[in-house]
Specification:
104 residues, mainly alpha, Rossmann fold, three-stranded parallel sheet, globular
Length: 104
């Protein structure tokens, strides 16, 4: 599979600025976009910030949530962490004490 990774900021621009070049980029028939699992949260967070900052209407932002959900992208969901994933204390000398106990 080939394609491009779509950054959330480009999607926000395409959703909120209909005349932007980002709209043309996303509407091209030959482009295939992939996004990480955090993509939707990033876009929603940016929309929330625009609404809270008074730069975008809340009802219009709510309509964009539907557009986001049907955006033609391949969403790559991450797998849950395994026991060893992220546990640096077991793979290297810790610089700070662990903040949670890992099951043995």
């Amino acid at each position: 599979m080939s394609g491009y990774v779509l950054d959330a900021s480009v999607a926000v621009t395409a959703l909120t600025e209909p005349e932007s070049p980002a709209v043309g980029l996303l509407s091209g028939n030959d482009a295939a976009f992939q996004v990480p699992s955090i993509f939707d949260a990033e876009v929603l967070s940016a929309l929330r910030g625009l609404v809270r900052g008074g730069k975008f209407d809340s009802s219009a932002a709510a309509d964009l949530v539907v557009d986001l959900m049907v955006l033609p992208v391949d969403r790559w969901h991450s797998h849950p962490c395994s026991r060893a994933c992220g546990n640096c204390a077991r793979t290297s000398h810790p610089t700070v004490p662990p903040t949670w106990p890992w099951p043995s």
